[in-house]
């Protein structure tokens, strides 16, 4: 349920359709305008478009409501992640999972090169997180992890982080607010690659941060806003409009994709060409270790016709990729692992295509 001011709480599906719209007045447009402007006439609330834009406001209202906080849109997921990592003091200590999104991993390595400390804990090692938090400045979490699909006990780790006053950030891209709302578990910041499920159509690159609507949350939010304004990684209004349009259908897309992912995970477990299925039990991503090693995994990707062999995830089209193609991918990820981002095509077409591709490999 999403609580809107002075009204009954709405189901998420209903909120997604109605939020971020212009007020209903006679003759008003049903959609927010794409505000293409770099500046505004003097003496208004915002004077320059690197600082604010009405199209951003509409998207931020929708995503903020969905996560239960205050949202900011950024130029990309990495723009949002950079802003969140700017909360770490120079030379400070970050506690993070030993496998993270590879861009995050590279930024954490840069933090170490600059004299900072990163303590890496296996995503499922709750006691390891609790111990590491004692000396942390910032906790970074991603659950499930990408692409190993390890699930962290977010409630336990975030509760301890909160007790110790350690700033916590959760990359919620894979779960989406439909599966997990980290602010309600005590997280300080949620980051999203809006590029993925929230937009959902593989046509924009965009990011977001969300903070709690509390004194502490608003304070952190001001620091993130300042980072966005001064470092300048701001979103184009057209991209934000497309993301808001994509967001309207998030629940139906995610529901279909998740149901298909569950079915594929079940069938793949018995496939002769699959050594292991990695699936978090919910969501629309799963990974498989392909029998026959790296070469067989590559051949399977090349043999798909319905599945798109490409990087990224969360679009309406199903995507498959061998993650270790990327030199920056963690060595913890097996060379024969394929990440499957399940889209909204018919599950029988997805199964038939995957089955033939794996057998051809
Ligand atoms: C893609 C992704 C990112 C990076 O987002 P961009 O929009 O590509 O900058 C960060 N975290 C996760 C989990 C992702 O999947």
UniProtKB/TrEMBL annotation:
Which superkingdom heads the taxonomic lineage of this protein's source?
Bacteria
| UniProt family annotation | Belongs to the trans-sulfuration enzymes family.
Which keywords appear in this protein's UniProt record, sorted alphabetically? Pyridoxal phosphate, Transferase
Q: What is its cofactor?
A: pyridoxal 5'-phosphate
- Family matches, as PANTHER family: CYSTATHIONINE GAMMA-LYASE (PTHR11808:SF15), TRANS-SULFURATION ENZYME FAMILY MEMBER (PTHR11808)
Q: Does the keyword Transferase apply?
A: yes
The record's section on Pfam families has:
Cys_Met_Meta_PP (PF01053)
What molecular functions are annotated in GO for this chain?
Answer: transferase activity
| Record-given protein name | PLP-dependent transferase
Keyword Cytoplasm among UniProt keywords = no
């Amino acid at each position: 349920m999403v609580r809107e001011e002075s009204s009954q709480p709405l189901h998420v599906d209903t909120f997604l359709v109605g939020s971020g719209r212009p007020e209903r007045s006679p003759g008003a447009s049903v959609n927010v305008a794409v505000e293409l402007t770099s500046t505004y006439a003097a003496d208004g609330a915002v004077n320059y478009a690197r600082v604010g834009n009405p199209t951003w406001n509409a998207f931020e209202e929708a995503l903020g409501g969905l996560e239960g906080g205050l949202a900011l849109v950024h130029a990309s997921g990495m723009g949002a992640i950079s802003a969140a990592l700017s909360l770490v003091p120079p030379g400070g200590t970050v506690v993070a999972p030993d496998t993270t999104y590879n861009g995050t991993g590279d930024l954490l390595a840069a933090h170490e090169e600059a004299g900072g400390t990163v303590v890496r804990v296996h995503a499922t090692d709750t006691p390891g997180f609790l111990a590491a938090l004692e000396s942390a400045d910032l906790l970074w979490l991603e659950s499930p992890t990408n692409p190993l699909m390890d699930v962290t006990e977010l409630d336990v780790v975030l509760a301890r982080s909160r007790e110790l006053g350690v700033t916590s950030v959760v990359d919620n891209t894979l779960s989406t607010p439909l599966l997990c709302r980290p602010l309600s578990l005590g997280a300080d910041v949620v980051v999203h690659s809006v590029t993925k499920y929230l937009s959902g159509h593989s046509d924009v690159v965009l990011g977001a941060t969300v903070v709690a609507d509390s004194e502490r949350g608003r304070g952190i939010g001001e620091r993130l806003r300042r980072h966005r304004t001064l470092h300048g990684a701001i979103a184009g209004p057209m991209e934000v409009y497309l993301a808001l349009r994509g967001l309207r259908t998030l629940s139906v897309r995610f529901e279909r994709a998740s149901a298909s992912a569950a079915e594929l995970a079940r069938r793949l477990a018995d496939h002769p060409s699959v050594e292991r299925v990695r699936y978090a039990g919910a969501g629309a991503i799963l990974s498989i270790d392909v029998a026959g090693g790296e070469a067989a995994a590559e051949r399977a990707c090349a043999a798909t016709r319905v599945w798109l062999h490409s990087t990224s995830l969360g679009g309406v089209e199903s995507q498959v990729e061998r993650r270790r193609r990327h030199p920056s991918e963690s060595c913890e990820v097996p060379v024969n692992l394929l990440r499957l981002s399940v889209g909204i095509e018919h599950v029988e077409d997805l199964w038939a295509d995957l089955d033939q591709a794996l057998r051809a490999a």
